[in-house]
Amino acid sequence: MTDMSHYIKTLNIQNFKCFDNFKVEGLARVNLITGKNNIGKTALMEAIGINVYAQDIKTFTNALASIKMIRETLNTDGAIGYLNTQQIKKYIKPTAGVCIESNINTTAFSIFDKDGVVKYNFKFLDKEISVNVRDFSFEIDRVPNIVALDNFGFPNCVINEYYSYLQKLEQEDFLNQSLNKFDERIQGFKIIDDKPHCKVNGKYVELTELGDGTHHLVSIIVALFASKEGYFLVDEIDNGVHFEKLDSFWEIILFLSKSKNIQVFATTHSKECIESYARVAQKMEDKDITLIELGKSDGELKNIVFNYEAVIDYALYQHSDIRGW
Fold first, then answer.
1. Rounded distance, CA 270 to CA 240, Å?
2. 7-65 tens-digit pLDDT
3. In terms of C-beta density within 10 A (0-12 exposed, 13-18 middle, 19 or more buried), how is residue 201 classed?
4. Cβ atoms 143, 230 nearer than 8 A
5. pTM, whole model, 2 decimals?
6. Please, are residues 181 and 189 in contact by the beta-carbon 8 Å criterion?
7. Alpha carbon distance 37, 325 (integer Å)
8. 271-277-279 Cα angle (round to 5)
9. Among 22, 26, 122, 155, which lies 20 to 30 A Cα-Cα from 310?
10. Which domains does the chain have, with CATH numbers?
């Protein structure tokens, strides 16, 4: 039997961005987050990322700093490794006061500042650690099977790194077949001179020349292989994907997430994407899915979690708009 003990089932977020005291329950293996623009979809995924990533001070600090840094520098994967300790302090300071609890971890970060003494207080995995700010030093560290993908896609160096997971498993044909199903012109994929290439009509061309949809699909597939037994978080999951290709797209994601035992969190604002998600889940009889709809009531951020049956009913039969309120 598949061990799903690492799956987040419940989450409570306090003092993080738009979340004062926000609770969501009933999460599944694959979770699609919807809501109006700027409602907090990305912030919810960031909170999830902090909770699963915080396994020691290094990974906790990386998670806190990455959120602020990525927002300011767009998609500069790896840039955090070039920051010094003073820059990291600047990035983590705005997150002070955050507390994120789930069934797998309780993570909290605060700053004590009194009489000239400043301390960073970390809480994770039932540990509480206090560090004098003068003794604090930053070290980059990553948790290998937790992967986050923003709507800009991975740069070449990250695609190359994650593609090696497919190579070790001799699963290159899976990517080739998926790309061909997505675009019949594509006959294969290779890394040539450290750059991802696709074979199109008998000639290899750089991945960057094939449009956002193809780049996004490659990024997602290699990321899922790298996330085995872990977590995959993806913002604007349907970015660049034509609506006619969405079913093939979701088939790949649901298949890999189940076969590799990955908990997936994704965001969208597309009605077509939601309908495709429901349609493919029904076709594959994959009931371990949810849709999380975010909205505001009396100025307070709320959520409705739709399980498999509700997603199918609302998206396919009632044709309801479940993209926030």
1. 12
2. 999 999 999 999 999 999 999 999 999 999 999 999 999 999 999 999 999 899 888 88
3. exposed
4. yes
5. 0.93
6. no
7. 10
8. 100
9. 22
10. 1-145+231-325 (3.40.50), 147-226 (no CATH)
